[in-house]
Amino acid sequence: MAERILTEEMENAIRALFPRYPTRQAVTLPALHIVLEKLRYVPPQAVVEIAGLLELAPSQVQDTLSFYGIFPQDKPHGRTRVWVCRSISCALRGSDELLQQLCESAGISPGGTTGDGRVTIEIAECLGACEHAPCMLANDELHHCITREQGEAFLRGLK
Amino acid sequence: MADFEPVLMANMQREDSHTLAAYEKAGGYAALKRALREMQPKGVVDLVKRSGLRGRGGAGFPTGLKWTFLPQETRGPVYFCLNADESEPGTFNNRVLMEQDPHQVLEGLILSCFATCATTAYFYMRYEFPLAWRRVQAAIDECYSAGYLGSNILGSGYSLNVYLHRGAGAYICGEETGLIESLEGKRAWPRIKPPFPAVEGAFRRPTVVNNVETVACVTHIVARGAEWFRSMGVPPDPADPRDPGSFGPKLYCLSGHVERPGCYEAPMGLPVRELIDRFGGGIWKGRRAKAAIPGGISMGLLRADEFDCRLDFASPARYGCLGLGTAAVVVLDETVSMVDFLHNSCRFFAHESCGQCTPCREGTAWSLRMLDRIRAGRGRWKDLDLLLEIGDSIGIIPGSTICGLSDGAAWPIKNAIRKFRAEFEDYIRQSNPQGYLETAPVAALDSTGSH
Ligand SMILES: Cc1cc2nc3c(=O)[nH]c(=O)nc-3n(C[C@H](O)[C@H](O)[C@H](O)COP(=O)(O)O)c2cc1C
Ligand code: SF4
Ligand code: FES
């Protein structure tokens, strides 16, 4: 038996959502979000446990999870997860250069995490903030119109 | 249009515009109170029908008419899904509405649910909107405390619950049946229609899907009337019996190479040039424009000499574009390479295709591979014809796919190559002088790394 991963707190948070939906399966994405927020990844064992709570086969939860690009399964993403937009409005204002610069400074390639677990840099499509191009989302914070210097300062400021 | 006063953005200038206190001080929730006191659901549907409101999410379907497709007699729940997945490149007006004035959206949502007799609404918001998420959740909480949500709203006997539901970073969740599948906890694979959601939608029940800006308009239609709404915009084209016209105020998104990117409100039908010059302060750095996306990248391209195009539901198609889409204008200045533009567009759609339909999955992936090859100096003129073959054959318009994502992938290809063919040919000839006339089949580059 693998060790349980979901805490009671997570399970309760997931169960609390049941009355909102006519099916248990609809709680799949909310449950994945709850686990991702706490663990910064959703390992296979968590998938099995979520499936148990939702009365689904683990493969059903895994099928859904694997469709979306935001739930890592092998290891937690960095303490800061950065989404750098590369879609058209940002590309017109230098997002390709920004992404390259950030990755070089951090010594990783897109999708990678620094060895100290400080930061993961991800490629994003349009973040719905095109008036602030080039922009990126770092955890819960949107960074606007980022210059080279701001990109560097941002990386230096990470804990 | 000089005397137009913003309506959708009026409250945003106020301090703490996102709070209930500020919203009520500006007259917020008066329309809801009056509707619950004086109107029947059918009255609201008729009002919205008369206003001529058309959906702001991209397809422009008449909102009141969509609501009448719900079965008249039904036992069991009707669901309302608010589409806040906003992911069309260039588009951000829903985010601005939700961050700056979430109560305006909620008032419209409650009115729309009342009209459609929905007692549960799922507010489906994309993952990447953390501030909007917090503001909307706070606003929902305020509504429950104030009695605008919950059971027996303001003593009317009408009850409604609104639940925020978070997406997970996939563009296709914005397609209404993809959204429904995603809400149900599955992969966001759009459904074959019919049945349409009004007949069989979320959890196999009758369901309405509307965009955030659409329901915000409902608030003002109930407050000010259908005639007010029809007093601005573009009337139906008498030559086209199927054109219902384009009425009301609109939030235009402007980004790319302009001096002042931003979200601007004006009546439907604003010319692209006026949006760029009067609102956006013109092209940046004193340069000239080369082209503009008229309504999100899916809609294709206008050349700079086509900027007299008006932003209403009918006009962009007259310039060969797919439609108005989200009225999100992205400006490309004279320095932009059309090869780079098209590569960016093809990369987006190849990344976001859900993969269900072979023409879309393979067409978007191959168009990206060809653009990669062209940019690597291995392009052939024949590739332009191959790209056009893809562009002309994928989509619900040619009838080969389940949803409109592939029409959106096709249009930038068709417009860019047909409107700028000479530039593509020059690029290919100059970057591949030995091989640009080859026509024999060639392999893709080994690994594009751009997927
Ligand atoms: C690929 C694709 C993506 C879409 N994305 C969105 C979106 O993010 N938001 C939205 O409101 N509508 C989106 N739509 C349109 C919806 O399918 C639907 O028409 C709309 O939500 C209906 O609301 P409305 O009538 O109020 O516009 C998308 C459509 C397609 C084909
Ligand atoms: S057209 Fe493309 S995105 Fe739409 S259902 Fe088919 S494969 Fe999926
Ligand atoms: S294109 Fe980058 S936020 Fe929209």
Summarize the structure.
The complex is a heterodimer of chains A (159) and B (451). Chain A has 159 residues and is an alpha+beta fold. Chain A has seven helices and four strands.
Structural write-up:
The complex is a heterodimer of chains A (159) and B (451). Chain A has 159 residues and is of the alpha+beta class. Chain A is 42% helix and 11% strand. Chain A folds into two domains: 60 residues, Arc Repressor Mutant, subunit A; 78 residues, Glutaredoxin (3-Layer(aba) Sandwich), CATH 3.40.30. Chain A is built from seven helices and four strands, in the order ααααβααβββα. Chain B has 451 residues and is of the alpha/beta class. Helices cover 41% and strands 13% of the residues of chain B.
Q: What labels describe this entry?
A:
heterodimer, A: 159 residues, alpha+beta, Arc Repressor Mutant, subunit A, Glutaredoxin, 2 domains, 4-stranded mixed sheet, B: 451 residues, alpha/beta, Ubiquitin-like (UB roll), de novo design (two linked rop proteins), 3 domains, 4-stranded parallel sheet, 17 helices, binds flavin mononucleotide, binds FE2/S2 (inorganic) cluster
Which helices and strands occur, and which strands form pairs?
The complex is a heterodimer of chains A (159) and B (451).
Chain A: H1 8-15, H2 28-39, H3 44-54, H4 58-67, E1 80-85, H5 88-91, H6 95-106, E2 119-124, E3 136-138, E4 141-143, H7 148-156
Parallel strand pairs in A: 1-2
Antiparallel strand pairs in A: 1-3, 3-4
Chain B: H1 20-25, H2 30-38, H3 41-51, H4 63-68, E1 79-84, H5 93-100, H6 102-116, E2 120-125, H7 130-146, E3 161-166, H8 176-183, E4 207-211, H9 212-224, H10 226-230, E5 233-234, E6 246-247, E7 249-256, E8 262-267, E9 270-271, H11 272-279, E10 289-293, E11 302-303, E12 310-311, H12 315-318, E13 328-333, H13 338-352, H14 358-378, H15 381-393, H16 405-419, H17 421-431
Helix pairs in contact in B: 2-6, 2-9, 3-6, 5-6, 5-7, 6-9, 13-14, 13-16, 14-15, 15-16
Bound molecules: flavin mononucleotide, iron/sulfur cluster and FE2/S2 (inorganic) cluster.
Residues 85, 87-90, 126-130, 133, 135 of chain A line the site of FE2/S2 (inorganic) cluster.
